[in-house]
Amino acid sequence: MTLEDRIEPRLEEAQKLADWSRETIIHGATAFDARQTIARKLGVGIDGDVVTFGFWTPELLDHRVPDGDVFLEILSSDEPIDLTISHRTVEFSRVYVPVARQDNFTFAAVSGAKIGRREEVGDFYALTWRDHKGEWRRIFDPLAMSVPFGVFAPAEIYDVASMHQGRADADYFKALAGDAPHKFGPPTNILQIHVPTATGGGTIAALNRRFQRLAERVREGLPLEPDDQLYLGYDAVQLLPVEPTTVYEAGPGFWEELSGDDERLTVDLTRPDTTNWGYDIVISGMGTVNPVLLESGRPDELVDLAVTLHTFPTKPKKLVLDVVYGHSDNQGLKALNPHFFAGPNMYGQNLDYKNPNVRAILLEMQRRKVDFGADGVRVDGAQDFKWWDSSTQEMRHDDDFLQLMSDIVQNVAGTDYRPWFVFEDGRPWPQEDWELSSTYRAVIEGQRDDDVFQWGPLTFAHNTPFIYSFWLSKFWRIREMLDVGANWISGTANHDTLRRGTQVNPKLNINTRLGESRMEILDKAYDNPAVSMLTYVAFPGVPMDFLNATARASWGFIRNQDDKYGVKVVSEEAISLKWQVDEYSYERPGNFTRLKAMGFTTRDDLARFFEFLPALVEVTEYDLDEIARLLNQVEPPLAGPGTFSVRVLKEIARAWMDDMHDYCNVAHAVSALDPAQTDFMLRLRNFRRQNGWLRNNYGERDHFDYMQPIAGRTVFTSLRHGPDGQQVYTITHMEGGETSDFDPLRLKIPGLEGAGWTCTLRTPNIGPDYISGPIVLKDSMGLVFTRNM
């Protein structure tokens, strides 16, 4: 049967949707209410054999395209498509289906389409229209739920309901069902994970297998290895963004059409393989999963991971997804119609949050993404959600939109629920005095729910705990944490702070007591036992750890899609070579293979090149031709490919990003893990989980201060009072020289007096034989004592 015979247009059903949208707009309480209702019908809907398609298409009105020039395009491959193959050429049959339009909405319906599921790939689709020159143009579906070749290609007709059939975590959700939607509260702590560098496989499926293996080991009571301990002791797992990101700026695309006519199409298909830290998004496709992260090419992998976490032995783990709506990369202009955007910003494009259609579609994307089975949502860059107030001639924060995000009701396994929300919001950033003036509580104080969280001041980007006097300089922020930090995410190691740490000038006043080399200093600064003890025992809030930091793996700004500014980006990242790569690491087989192949055979070769590149980028104002010319005149000549050109510079930039992406993989750090450190961190996390009250703000009887006189070191002391007479006393040496021989339990702290104290936790650099009494504390040492009065 040909595709034309198989596909039956159902124009009557499409017209019903168009008429319904008209009635909805007429009778909606507000324009936004009406658009929210219509947004539920956009994208693909499946009812038995009938598949419906809905698009918001204001661009068709902009170009005055008549109905007779607009069609739904359906493409069906002649042979089954294997999404695990890197590259192949595929023959498609093509049909054009008439549509029904109502104002700026376009609908279509068909029967006979091949519907994609886990086991097989379905037909592909896009809206297509013919311009006045007779040339065909496509409108891709921003609400598509399966995009095997990215959002700049036709999407797959996918049966979302099939992903949820037989979910093994159905009982987890059903137990939460009630008369009103269940509201998830905060977890005790969070493990933050970048999927591509979390496992050797670099996919969601590979990460799922990691947790499945852990679950089996825990279930059977097997001994825990250091790399097991990295993932355990957490109540929640937060993934860096898993939505589609930018593609190669200069091509080639993952869907390249070679030839075709009205009935046939030949396409060169490439499995998406970009590398990205996750935040260079294009908004389109936010409701589904980045195909780069899918081993099988099927979005079911995200459901599988949620199931594994929710059925984890001893205690379910929550899944938190990271939503990025504060900006779009400029590539989004090619994926979406211009009505989505409100103008350029430092990241690319602002979104037009006040457009009721954009507002509704963004919220619908969020609803569909979280319906994969997430328990929580982290909102990136909430301070960037702004709109232009023409009456006051200023940009205003769209806090109403943030509230709408929090209000969305999800449904999984028949249970309605509202996820826990945490916002990253540093307003008035990017105002110059933001580090001083930001309260980090703007969203907390503005939302209706009392369990809304924000990233706290020690969790935001510009924190460098390896520079001398850091902790005393932040003491005023710490005092704030004690008073109002219960609803803050705490901890100094996350994807943003670790990245910023690699960009610090090594000539600054670095705390050399943290290690013998820059790599050791950076690793220990962001996986410091004393800092972790402070975070997990002394500070309120919800602690969060970044897997790359606790594994002491490298991390940075990873993005290999740039063409125009790729060399500039690498010049800014070049300083991380000084912090994260030593001679031994560079020379190891398998590391930096692309750069070595280009002639940078040693670390010194690359380091010399990186000394020149940033300086030339600055003095030439990023004139690539001039940069290449000047590099060719360096004496003695630079190592590398021989003669530098613009093309070669771009190849070097791409090689650096690809090599760094491989180098940052946590799998490479496993053999170097310190069992004492991983065991301590696990015991510390379990202590926090067993003492959930530590999340609360300090009370009147609680104490926090630093030992005085300072005498060349920073030593914090904390005494907290819990329920039923429980006391927890913490002392941590944060930086500086060693103390004299003193007894931590004899300090003049109200409430510390008396006997009965037990040394419950000690950092790995303190021997297990220490119980109490005099001790000399050095940098990164700490103790926790407990007693019940």
Description:
This protein has about 800 residues and is an alpha/beta fold. It folds into 4 domains: about 5-160, Sandwich (Immunoglobulin-like); about 180-245 and about 285-550, Alpha-Beta Barrel (TIM Barrel), CATH 3.20.20; about 565-665, no CATH class; about 700-789, Golgi alpha-mannosidase II (Immunoglobulin-like), CATH 2.60.40.1180. The strands form 7 sheets. Strands 12-13-16-19-24-25-26-27 form an 8-stranded parallel barrel. Strands 4, 5, 8, 9, 10, 14 and 15 form a 7-stranded antiparallel sheet that branches. A hairpin with a 6-residue loop joins strand 28 and strand 29 (about 715-720). Helix 22 packs across helix 26 (about 605-620). The longest helix is centred in the C-terminal third of the chain and has 18 residues, at about 645-665. It is globular and about 85 Å long. The model has no long low-confidence stretch (mean pLDDT about 95).
Q: Helical content, roughly?
A: 25-40%
Q: What about the largest sheet?
A: 8 strands, parallel, barrel
Any idea what the CATH superfamily of the largest domain is called?
Glycosidases
Q: If strands are numbered along the chain, what order do they take across the biggest sheet?
A: 12-13-16-19-24-25-26-27
Please state roughly what percent of the residues sit in beta strands, choosing from under 5%, 5-15%, 15-25%, 25-35%, 35-45% or over 45%: 15-25%
Task: State the secondary-structure class.
Answer: alpha/beta
The 3D shape can be described as globular
* Residue-averaged pLDDT: 97
Tally of separate helices:
29
The CATH architecture name of the largest domain reads Alpha-Beta Barrel
Low-confidence stretches: none
CATH class of the largest domain: Alpha Beta
- The CATH topology of the largest domain is given as TIM Barrel
Number of domains: 4
Alpha-carbon distance between the two ends: 81 Å
**Beta-strand segment tally:** 32
Determine Rg (CA atoms, Å): 28 Å
